[in-house]
Amino acid sequence: MTKSKSTNNLNASGEIKATPSYITANSTAKQMQRNDNDMDAVTGRMLKMAIETNNIADETLKSLDNQNELIKKQQDEVADMQDTLNVADRKISGIRSIFSHIGNAFKKDNSTEHQKARQNYEKERAKETFKKEAIRQKMEEKELDSKIQSTNLELNQTAEKDAQHLKQAKLQSKQEIKHGSRSSDPVVMGKFVFEEIEVPGEQCQAENNLDEVGKHVKMLKAKAQTMGDYVDESKERISDLHNNLNDVHQRTVNATKKEEKIIKSGW
Predict the structure, then answer these.
(1) Tens digit of pLDDT for each residue in 131-143?
(2) CA atoms within 13 A on the CB side of 181
(3) What's the predicted TM-score (pTM) here?
(4) Distance separating alpha carbons of residues 187 and 107, to the nearest angstrom
């Protein structure tokens, strides 16, 4: 048995009627709105995650900074111990013989030698940090200039495409009116607004979210670099602290041996 063809979509000549473009445009616009809502939700979650990650990065930076401050204090304390040992060595040397006692009067005072060395060390670290920041800033400026040029190029290309689409939409609209497939009422063609459906001219929520995500990602990048600098600084300070502690230990042992000899000699 042969099925009869539905005549709902046939015109008087038996040809299939074309769906008016304004119906397709309205359907497309509604789908685009649903997609926009989905994008708003997705980008909103992305922004929330970026904010939380930034907060964690802030806490990590604070911990690393506190750690370095603690190591600095330990370095200062060890430097004080080394200077104290300098004084002790001079006194022990003066006790051992009269000549050493007289010689100490002509020796350069080294009671603050290691404290001064610590101050110079911190000055050099500050200079190094300043140089790194200057280099990083220049790199960021170059990166920003490159992004601006790329964005301008994309905007120009988009503007050209939009102009072509608008021209095609208007031409199609005129042809449909001429052939009677639609009324002369303004309609939406793709993303171009004529009157029936308004598309806000301002930036949509998803784009705002993405802009904010981009800002947070940039901050995270800078914080990650700072974390790396903190870790490198900590490693250097710990190594310096370890070497100086070994020095204090060895000098303390030597000073103790000298004192024992003096005591045994009955001086």
Answers:
(1) 878 887 787 777 7
(2) 16
(3) 0.57
(4) 97
Separation between Cα atoms, residue 133 and residue 226, nearest integer Å:
10
d(CA 25, CA 14): 26
Residue 57 and residue 227 in contact, taking contact as beta carbons nearer than 8 Å:
yes
- Tokens for 105? 């009067």
pLDDT tens digit sequence for 170-185? 777 777 666 665 544 4
262 within 8 A of 95, measured Cβ to Cβ: yes
| Helices 205-265 and 21-96: angle between axes, nearest 10 degrees | 10
CA 22/CA 197 separation, integer angstroms: 11
Spatial distance between the Cα atoms of 37 and 30, rounded to a whole number of angstroms: 11
Paired residues of 16 in beta bridges:
10
The two most distant CA atoms of the chain are separated, in Å, by 133
- Closest by CA to 44, choosing from 258, 229, 209, is 209
The tokens for 162 are 């939009």
- Structure tokens, 252: 């303390």
Contact by Cβ (8 Å): 22, 177 = no
Who's near 216: CB < 8 A, 6+ residues apart?
47, 50, 51, 53, 54
